[in-house]
Each structure stands twice: as structure tokens, then as C-alpha cells.
Amino acid sequence: NRDESSLNEMGRNKIQNILVILNKKRNIGKKNWILFANFYKLFFNSFPYYNVTFKVHPAENINFCRDNLKDFNVIKNDINIKKYDLVLSHWSTFIFESALSNIPFILINPKNLFSYKYWRLDHYPLIVSDIEKLDKIINEINHKKININKILSDFVLKSLGDRNLSSWNGLFRNIFYTK
Question: What angle do CA 128, 130, 134 make, to 5 degrees?
Fold first, then answer.
């Protein structure tokens, strides 16, 4: 049940468990992959009170990822998104699963080096470029200064269209059966 995963619905007022969706190195290049890894390492070493899991793409070399994210939990296997309070990603189709599951997500763009226009995500209001802004946004979500339910709802409607597409079945039909 997607409502049960909401921070508001669960009665939790603090983000504790964060899922980081890592990009494929071959999609963004090794240099950029390391830029993102360094961003995450800096953030989680500066704010060590989160339980963080790094999710590796199924086609990625997990040993390369573990070598670059020493002392962090790096997994490749499937996950249950409802175990997480927040998702961080540069870009992944997983953000749609996060939004449809009512799990907040923040897009990471170190130093504003990348454009979200190509993926038609530049409208999303939670894009951060430095660790201070990431900490600020997480605190605003924690203190309910951001209406995350409205942000996710607007994202789903703008990105997936009408209510027929704003569901798991609609997303599946849109991806696999649209010509």
C-alpha cells in the first residue's frame, strides 16, 4: 500500500534510511561516476547518522562500486523500496518507482554540471548541487516545510500524464507498449 510508506502516514518525522541509486558507469563515464561517489561519500561522512544503502545497477560491476564506496553498504540485489525513507539519484527510472510508492526522492547534480532538460526533469523542485543544500532539503522534509506529497503527485502527473498512466500498470504500459 503506497500510503503506508509515506513518512506522514507512518508517523515518523525523521528520515533515517536512505537509498542511493547509482548510475551505470558506462552511461555517465568513470570520471562522472567517481564525481557522484565522492559527493555521496562527502555527504554521508559529514552527516553519519543516516543508514545508507547504495544500490548498484544490475549490469554494473559491484566490486568496482564497493572499492570506490569502502565502509558503505553496497548491494546489487533487489530491494524493497518501502524500507527506505528517501531515495537519492542522479537519474534512474527508479525515481518513478519511488514517486509511485510515495517515497521522497532528491535528484543529485554535483556542482550543477548536468542538465535535466534531456530527461525532461528540469521541472522537479528537489535538485541539489552541494551537500549543504542536500542537508537543508532533508531537514525541510523532516520538519514538513516541504509538501512532499504534492511534489510527488505533481511529478507523477507531469512525467507520466493522466491518471491512467499514474500507476504501476500505467507506467508499464507507457514504457513497453507505446510506439
Answer: 55
